[in-house]
Amino acid sequence: MITERNDRCVVSGLRRLYFDFHDAIDLYAKDEAKGRVEIEAVIHDICKRGSGGGESNQAKG
Q1: Tens of pLDDT along 2-32?
Q2: What are the residue ranges spanned by the domains of the chain?
Q3: What does residue 52 show for φ and ψ, rounded to 5 degrees?
Q4: What is the pTM for the complete model shown?
Q5: Which distant-in-sequence residues (6+ apart) come within 8 Å of 34 by Cβ?
């Protein structure tokens, strides 16, 4: 079903963001400046996905 496929895409996308965020936190612990850039990028991706504007949502829509 299309709905199930979309649900899986959303879950896998959120899982990717979750792991990206934790990777950014780990980087921040090692290098504050680089970590801030990565955290900002992940937060930006989360905001885009939350507003329905993420690339993966548009490509699969």
Answers
A1: 666 666 777 777 788 889 999 999 999 999 9
A2: 17-60
A3: 80, 10
A4: 0.62
A5: 27, 28
